[in-house]
């Protein structure tokens, strides 16, 4: 019995069980959540319990790869859409924190490995801690992380709660500004019927008119001589026809100018006609454009709307389909099943996790991370295990599909594997660090805690002031950006509680991928200097 208790696999699951149980305990809305695992591991490690290092490496690989796969599309999209202001805030915050970590570690004679742990604990970044341990091969960073993390998590919540009051910001006005901007960027997609009145288009085909190109709208139905049907490129419009058009308000206004005035006359669906939402899960259509699929010519079907990540998009010929998209399809009954089969429409497939892309992606990442590049003769630079796997996952998730392999995971599958990897990693790292934690604390005492608090507070306050007064960012979005730059989930929860919009969540998600990458890069740099 005693021997079993000290077996590595038993210790691993004991730490995970106790850590999750303790992490679920809330005190005035605050809880350690999954990070409680490392504190249990530190305690048990101090008393001689050990989780084998192999669990640490496997957990690290799963954790970093799933983060990269999830963050990849957002990481590159953030560069394209918000590459200036929001990402600049993130860069400033993490750079200030790294600079403080370096300076204070030198001033107070704190070992660099402890310093990089304080840096990650203060910004509540487990991926950064993983990178630091990977490059140093020392458990000292986890001790610094364990000291700084609780204060970092609590202070992030307090500061985000206090900043609106201290700076006298009217959050209701900020909400309205945000909603107005969202309406402008992603106008609602609606449908409207129009009467063909323009003499200039009488008898011309839809291909000749190029209504989609000219207006950005889609004609989904045509009624001619009381006969309703799905149009094709060769369909001709005649005076007196009724057409159903799908698009934004601006697009429909252009349609009115081209075709004629709106009408309340309905186009009834024929018995053989259906309109359904269809889920895109077939590997063969991923990354293909609507033009290349040509559903109208082959099946008499028309995609009138694409729903992606909760946002409705107006389809164009150049629009490409992604795994997990939902499309609104108008089609005759006899062809509806054929189109559904072509697109997939398999919810089970969406929930499944294919391990081939995961294992292959990790292999590529390990090989990439092992490549050494001479740096002007001073030292050899390599991405390392963490950097190689993260970079590979980011790029592969952006590519989306290579041949039959889809570089994506279902949300539930990603979350499960990521959490499992993180639990294994924290348990193994914590027991290693626990063996030396008491002598480290005895040597440095409260100094580590104080330094960690400074690294948390100053970057948050400075970047908030810059974002609010200099960049004039929406304050609710700014709070989310600060929380995302801190990689602080408790901070996001605090920001999100102040609004009924998704402003804070969008800000958090925009910079979070960049913050992950920056934390890993700075952790590697701080570990080497």
Topology at a glance:
Blueprint lengths: L1 H4 L2 H16 L12 H11 L6 H30 L2 H23 L4 H11 L3 H11 L3 H27 L4 H15 L4 E6 L8 E2 H4 L1 H5 L2 E7 L2 E3 L6 E2 L4 E6 L1 H10 L14 E7 L10 H4 L1 H5 L2 E7 L2 E3 L12 E7 H11 L3 H5 L3 H15 L3 E3 L3 E3 L2 H16 L1 E2 L2 E2 L4 H24 L2 H8 L2 H24 L4 H11 L3 H8 L6 H26 L1
Antiparallel strand pairs: 1-6, 2-5, 3-4, 3-6, 7-10, 8-9, 8-10, 11-12, 13-14
Helix pairs in contact: 2-3, 3-19, 4-18, 4-19, 4-24, 5-6, 5-21, 5-22, 5-24, 6-7, 6-8, 6-21, 6-24, 7-18, 7-24, 8-19, 8-21, 8-23, 17-18, 21-22, 22-23, 22-24
In short:
With 529 residues, the protein is α+β, with helices and mostly antiparallel strands.
Secondary structural class: alpha+beta
Tell me roughly what share of residues is in helical segments. Answer: 55-70%
Q: Radius of gyration from the CA trace?
A: 28 Å
| Proportion of residues in extended strands | 5-15%
Number of helices: 24
The shape, in one word, is elongated
Uncertain runs: none
How does this structure look, described?
61% of the residues lie in helices and 11% in strands. The chain has 529 residues and is α+β, with helices and mostly antiparallel strands. It folds into 2 domains: 2-179 and 368-528; 185-348, Alpha-Beta Plaits (2-Layer Sandwich). It has a 4-stranded antiparallel β-sheet, with helices on one face. A 4-stranded antiparallel β-sheet has the order 7-10-8-9. Helix 6 packs antiparallel against helix 7, helix 8 (140-166) crosses helix 19 (411-434) and helix 8 (140-166) runs parallel beside helix 23 (489-496). The longest helix has 30 residues, at 53-82. The model has no long low-confidence stretch (mean pLDDT 81).
């Amino acid at each position: 019995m005693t021997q079993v208790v000290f077996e590595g696999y038993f210790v691993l699951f004991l730490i995970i069980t106790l850590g999750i149980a303790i992490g679920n305990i809330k005190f005035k809305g605050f809880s350690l959540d999954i990070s409680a695992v490392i504190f249990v591991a530190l305690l048990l490690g101090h008393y001689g319990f050990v989780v084998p290092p192999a669990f640490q490496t496997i957990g690290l690989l799963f954790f970093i790869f799933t983060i990269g796969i999830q963050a990849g599309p957002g990481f590159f999209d953030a560069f394209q859409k918000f590459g200036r202001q929001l990402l600049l805030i993130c860069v400033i915050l993490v750079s200030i924190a790294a600079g403080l970590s370096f300076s204070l570690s030198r001033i107070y004679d704190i070992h660099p490995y402890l310093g990089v742990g304080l840096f990650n604990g203060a910004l509540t970044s487990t991926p950064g801690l993983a990178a630091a341990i990977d490059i140093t091969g020392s458990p000292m960073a986890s001790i610094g992380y364990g000291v700084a993390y609780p204060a970092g998590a609590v202070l992030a919540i307090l500061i985000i709660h206090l900043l609106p009051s201290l700076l006298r910001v009217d959050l209701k006005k900020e909400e309205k500004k945000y909603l107005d901007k969202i309406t402008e960027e992603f106008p609602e997609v609606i449908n409207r019927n129009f009467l063909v009145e323009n003499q200039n288009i009488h008898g011309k085909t839809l291909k000749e008119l190029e209504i989609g190109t000219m207006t950005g709208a889609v004609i989904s139905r045509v009624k001619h001589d009381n006969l309703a049907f799905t149009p094709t490129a060769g369909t001709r419009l005649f005076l007196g026809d009724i057409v159903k058009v799908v698009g934004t308000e601006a697009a429909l206004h252009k349609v009115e100018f081209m075709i004629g005035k709106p009408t309340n006359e309905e186009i009834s669906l024929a018995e053989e006609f259906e309109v359904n939402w269809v889920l895109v899960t077939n590997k063969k259509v991923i990354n293909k454009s609507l033009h290349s699929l040509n559903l109208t010519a082959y099946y008499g079907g028309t995609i009138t709307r694409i729903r992606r990540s909760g946002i409705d998009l107006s389809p164009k010929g150049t629009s490409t389909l992604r795994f997990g998209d939902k499309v609104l399809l108008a089609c005759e009954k006899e062809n509806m099943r054929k189109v559904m089969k072509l697109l997939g429409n398999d919810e089970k497939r969406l929930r499944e996790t294919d391990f081939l892309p995961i294992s292959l992606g990790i292999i590529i990442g390990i090989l990439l991370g092992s490549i050494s590049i001479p740096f002007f003769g001073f030292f050899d630079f390599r991405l390392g295990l963490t950097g190689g796997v993260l970079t590979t996952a980011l790029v592969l998730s952006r590519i989306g599909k290579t041949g039959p392999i889809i570089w994506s995971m279902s949300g539930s599958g990603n979350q499960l594997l990521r959490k499992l990897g993180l639990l294994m990693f924290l348990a193994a790292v914590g027991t290693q660090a626990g063996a030396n934690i008491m002598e480290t604390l005895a040597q440095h005492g409260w100094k580590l805690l104080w330094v960690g608090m400074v690294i948390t507070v100053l970057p948050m306050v400075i970047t908030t002031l810059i974002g609010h007064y200099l960049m004039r960012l929406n304050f609710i979005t700014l709070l989310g950006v600060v929380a995302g730059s801190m990689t602080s989930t408790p901070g996001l929860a605090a920001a999100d509680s102040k609004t009924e919009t998704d402003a804070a969540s969008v800000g958090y998600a925009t910079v979070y991928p960049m913050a992950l990458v920056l934390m890993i890069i700075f952790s590697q740099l701080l570990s080497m200097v």
